[in-house]
Amino acid sequence: MSETILRLEDVTRIHGTGEAQVTALAGVSLEVAAGELVAVMGPSGSGKSTLLNLAGGLDAPTTGTVVIEGQALGQLGKDGLARLRRRRVGFVFQDFNLIPSLTAAENVALPLELDGQRVGKARRRAVDALNTVGVGELADRYPDKMSGGQQQRVAIARALVGDRRLVLADEPTGALDSHTGEGVLRVLRERCDAGAAGLLVTHEARHAAWADRVVFLRDGVVVDSTGGDVAESLLEPTA
């Protein structure tokens, strides 16, 4: 049986109080194993991004438990959560979040350097990660000299560099053309096949087809779960 990398146990997230109170997630439980890519789908406002933020320790659940590689995030302080995100969790965002004043290699090496690695070693690992996603030749190029697809691949390299076992991707192909988007998904799929666990938020059934499982959210509740190869036939038009 594959090692469980991410586990959410009966997680609820409530924002606001009184009449302004909104339940973003309501009792969600989910496990993602090493080697597995899980897609999360659902209408806008269904809780997809909230789920991703909780999974990566960017937000804390109102109730319930989030566990990454056996470590309950609620037991970690601010510094412990920051270390966990640097070392174990890779985030891929739709808007890339690259630092304009840094080259591709410097952007990818940054989390390693923040974690105390020497500049030379961090750069070597960054270049290796860039080569893995097919943009090694861009190591010394700045983000404004790259296409959207190239920027996204650099962002993925940053999410994968080091020994991270959990990759969280929030609509990573939303700003890309279909051909480039397929390339991005292929990289995520290959990383999971190599042993990482992946959680992908997407609106596109054809993108969810890259996943091993698809979890459907509606109003903060898991309403269905199925294999990625039948996601398109089960997806409702409103999703």
UniProtKB/TrEMBL annotation:
Keyword Metal-binding: no
SUPFAM superfamilies referenced in this protein's UniProt entry, alphabetically: P-loop containing nucleoside triphosphate hydrolases
Pfam families per the UniProt record, alphabetical: ABC_tran
All copies of domain ABC transporter, residue ranges: 6-235
A single Gene Ontology CC term: plasma membrane
GO MF, one annotated term: transmembrane transporter activity
Keywords: ATP-binding, Nucleotide-binding, Transport
Name of the protein: ABC transporter ATP-binding protein
